[in-house]
Amino acid sequence: MPWEDEPGHPFAGIAAKLKRAEESIANLDAEIRAFFSGSKYPVMPDPDSGEWQGAVDYHKERPVPPRFAVLAGEIVHHLRSCLDHVAWYFSCAEYRRDKGTRIGFPVLDQKPQKAGDLKKKFEGISNKRVKVLIRCLQPYRHQGGATAHWLWILNDMDRIDKHREIVLVVSCAGLTFPPGAEYEARQLGAFLSQQKGQAPSDVDSDSLQTGMGSAKVPPEVVKSARVTPLLGFNRPVDEQYPEVISTLRRLLRVVRLVVDQFEGEKGEI
Question: I want to staple 146 with a disulfide (CB 3.0 to 4.6 A). Which of 120, 139, 168, 193 is the partner?
């Protein structure tokens, strides 16, 4: 986004947080890769071999370093606080002075019972377009349900991390297909879409994610891929335990897009 490269932009502080979150994701990715590279099974054995289930059990029982959860929690907090910075910027000086501790970007999973309840969230904001944007971004308006909305997922993860550590588990596997295995990749993409009740679709990526111990994935598809263990959040999203790094990167993209929608609106200095 252009505003991320402007040191004097009102959102320069937000841009710095996003950059720091991006760096932290890359660092965490490197540490997780090293964790698995030093394991007994950095690559999963052939599903038809007698070692497959033993490798699955090995990774599921192997303790995950607590540091990974701490780092993931820090990244989540950086991203969530970017939204609160937006709310602060658009709040008037008087409200900042008198009620500064109340300022925050609302993320609601249920529609307020009374119209006035939502207005209280915007007490210090006078820009009408900003208020409309905040309303439109609320998870309770999401057709797929509030808990599937990425802002709600971010908000919920941040809430959990404030009271206890985010739990990370080895719960999924990455499938990387060799050149020439595009058919198998499309097969798996269609299979996973059907499992989620979606229409099958082509998959452009040569790397996909599925459950670590899933016996439902067509064996002929798994056999064509290089299967590696991945670290997941112990929090279901779309009935899956999402892989840590791809989820954090998705949250980063979502926050960038949300902040970008407010760029150019007039706020307080």
Answer: 139
CB 71 within 8 A of CB 27: yes
pTM of the model: 0.81
Q: Tell me, what DSSP letter sits at residue 221?
A: H
Paired with 233 in beta bridges are: 168
On whether the CB atoms of residues 124 and 97 are closer than 8 A, the answer is: no
**Residue 43 tokens, joined:** 């690559």
Residue 21 structure tokens = 């979150």
Question: CA 93, CA 269: separation in Å to the nearest integer?
Answer: 8
pLDDT of residue 205: 38
Quote the percentage of the chain above a pLDDT of 70. 74
- CA–CA separation, 173 and 56 (whole Å): 10
- Which residues partner with 211 through β-bridges? 172
Average pLDDT on 68-78 reads 94
| 233: amino acid identity, one letter | F
C-alpha span between 196 and 176 (Å, rounded)? 21
Say which residue, 13 or 175, is predicted with more confidence.
Answer: 13
What six digits make up the tokens of 68? 């990974």
- The whole-angstrom separation of Cα 227 and Cα 260 is 37
**pLDDT of res. 147:** 87
* DSSP assigned state of 208: E
Cβ atoms within 10 Å of 119's Cβ, excluding its own: 11
Q: How far is CA 200 from the centre of its chain?
A: 23
Joined together, the tokens standing for residue 265 give 């609106």
